Write a sequence for this structure.
């Protein structure tokens, strides 16, 4: 995949036309992918129905690994959901111009990833029709959640994150949908008219919009960093060896950004290829994302070293035993896969050529995603399988039910994302225009 | 007082800015400017002498409401439903609240500050920006969301002619009365 297109600067009208073009009826490849998605979803719902019907034993979970693939995949998807709001909030405040062409797709990815993640606590809890027990609501027993429990913090953190990310996403979409409204006809125009809320781009509207956007970005910035910290406390607040560490919050946040950017690349590279968006998503954008993956990968490697060091240096024999078991015994293959995918594979991005090669970036991103899924697996399963007393040790094997549900969650995510890119502008019209030199009529002469 | 509205359509940022500067210099302040994107140069002319958008007030009130309601919820519910952890539970005695562990509640307070603050910000943007708008305003043109800039001047009918001349001289592509 070489970039043969010219990258001369497009005009404002080009941007509108090119973004509108991405909403054209899709081709056969799109429908082929939708068939794969349908298959995955069928497996997902069948497995879930089986689990509800026959009980939680179907999921293969047993003492001591009562948190297994479901929570692994939950943390994985929450991590994926970090890149979008990081790009749209933190990089917005830093005025990183390269974010403009990818932020819409990344934001959509964030929302869909958090929605996918949100399924897992429900699936994991078994009787998901009692999920509302998680929320504080008045009831006749005057029973309230325990606000000192990290699991309740998690409910608040994730529902706030989903709400604010969605709000941020919708606010960013409003001017773009107005542009699409004015350029489209028929049923699309009617739907876009409703969604655009009557946006006209008047100076009053822009004035409040800009201020609101900046404030939302400032609120979302600490939120991004807090969400995965709170998720990490689900583990770090427990006394399980391998979990009970103050390192966990920054460790999780960094890993989340790392995997989030990998997922952005996995989604944006095909988008750029199939929609012909080479003029907007240029090599310099890929280069910037490659650098971020490299940096977060190196930081993650540092955290892995810290984790091993603190365990060895702790003088705590149970910690050391847990570490030794992880590195050499039953689940060692998962740990070494993780080290290879997260620490070794991204090193190729030190070369500029690799950072601008879509093929290399794609392969590295897929490896990073695999590595980051295994990271959560290695935190949860081996730690629970080898804690304080030999009589509580145990080995977990995936069952067909939880495997189908985990694979099906990817189908669920793809369904949302593939639907999105054909219904909504996957490239921000307004923000891309901001990076183009505005039209100027040089020379003082008037007509 | 009857007014006339003159709309100038511009293709360039510099001509739009020139028109705005001229209009301001001639004392026309009742302007509506349409742009497909926020343009720094145009904002600079328009924001001169204007107060900062009041959206931030919404954010502040929303955020404070979030913090207050989070502490109310967590403290009050811990008092009505005493969960014994570490041999203690929160209770209200003569010396105030005892047996408490407030730090975890700060996490809830932070999340609810962001949630309420964020939602209030959007409400502020919608309310102050006059949204939702069910009918397009008379001076709006679909080109303003694509690649054209619009300057609508609301003035007394007898001054309409001079405004039209002014817009044309600044470099307007088209000048219409609406």
């Amino acid at each position: 995949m070489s970039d043969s297109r010219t990258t001369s600067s497009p005009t404002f009208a080009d941007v509108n036309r090119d973004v509108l073009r991405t909403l054209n009826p899709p081709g056969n490849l799109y429908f082929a992918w939708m068939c794969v998605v349908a298959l995955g979803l069928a497996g997902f719902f069948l497995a879930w129905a089986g689990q509800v019907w026959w009980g939680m034993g179907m999921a293969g979970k047993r003492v001591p690994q009562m948190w297994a693939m479901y929570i692994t995949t939950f943390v994985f998807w929450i991590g994926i959901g970090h890149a979008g709001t990081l790009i749209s909030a933190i990089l917005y405040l830093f005025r990183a111009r390269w974010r403009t062409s990818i932020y819409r797709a990344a934001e959509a990815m964030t929302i869909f990833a958090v929605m996918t993640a949100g399924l897992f606590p429900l699936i994991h809890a078994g009787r998901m029709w009692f999920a509302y027990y998680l929320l504080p609501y008045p009831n006749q027993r005057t029973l309230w959640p325990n606000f000192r429990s990290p699991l309740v913090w998690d409910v608040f953190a994730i529902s706030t994150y989903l709400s604010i990310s969605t709000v941020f996403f919708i606010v960013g979409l409003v001017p773009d949908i107005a542009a699409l409204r004015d350029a489209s006809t028929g049923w699309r125009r009617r739907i876009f008219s409703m969604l655009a809320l009557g946006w006209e781009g008047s100076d009053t509207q822009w004035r409040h919009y800009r201020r609101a956007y900046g404030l939302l970005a400032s609120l979302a910035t600490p939120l991004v960093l807090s969400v995965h910290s709170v998720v990490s406390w689900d583990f770090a607040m427990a006394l399980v060896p391998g979990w009970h560490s103050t390192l966990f919050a920054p460790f999780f946040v960094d890993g989340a950004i790392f995997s989030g950017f990998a997922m952005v690349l996995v989604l944006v590279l095909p988008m750029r290829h199939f929609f012909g968006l080479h003029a907007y998503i240029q090599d310099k954008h890929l280069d910037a994302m490659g650098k971020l993956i490299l940096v977060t990968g190196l930081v993650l490697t540092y955290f892995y070293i810290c984790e091993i060091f603190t365990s060895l240096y702790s003088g705590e024999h149970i910690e050391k035993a847990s570490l030794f078991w992880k590195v050499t015994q039953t689940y060692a293959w998962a740990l070494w896969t993780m080290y290879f995918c997260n620490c070794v594979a991204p090193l190729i991005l030190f070369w500029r050529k690799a950072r601008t090669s879509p093929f290399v970036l794609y392969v590295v991103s897929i490896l990073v995603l695999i590595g980051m899924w295994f990271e959560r697996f290695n935190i949860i399963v081996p730690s629970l399988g080898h804690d304080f007393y030999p009589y509580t040790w145990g080995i977990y094997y995936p069952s067909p039910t939880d495997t189908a549900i985990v694979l099906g969650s990817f189908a669920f995510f793809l369904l949302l994302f593939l639907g999105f890119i054909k219904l909504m502008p996957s490239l921000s019209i307004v923000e891309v225009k901001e990076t183009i030199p505005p039209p100027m009529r040089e020379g003082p002469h008037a007509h | 007082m009857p007014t006339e509205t003159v709309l100038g359509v511009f293709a360039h940022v510099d001509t739009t800015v020139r028109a705005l500067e001229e209009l301001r210099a001639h004392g026309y302040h009742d302007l509506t400017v349409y742009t497909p994107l926020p343009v720094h140069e145009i904002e600079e002319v328009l924001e001169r002498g204007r107060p900062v958008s009041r959206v931030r007030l919404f954010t502040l009130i929303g955020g404070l409401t979030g913090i207050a309601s989070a502490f109310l919820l967590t403290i009050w519910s811990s008092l009505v439903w005493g969960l014994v952890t570490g041999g203690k539970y929160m209770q209200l005695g003569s010396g105030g609240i005892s047996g408490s562990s407030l730090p975890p509640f700060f996490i809830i307070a932070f999340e609810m500050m962001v949630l309420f603050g964020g939602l209030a910000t959007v409400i502020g943007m919608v309310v102050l920006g006059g949204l939702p708008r069910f009918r397009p305003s008379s001076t709006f043109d679909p080109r303003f969301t694509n690649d054209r800039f619009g300057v609508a001047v609301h003035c007394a009918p007898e001054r309409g002619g001079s405004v039209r001349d002014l817009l044309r001289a600044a470099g307007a592509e088209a000048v219409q009365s609406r």
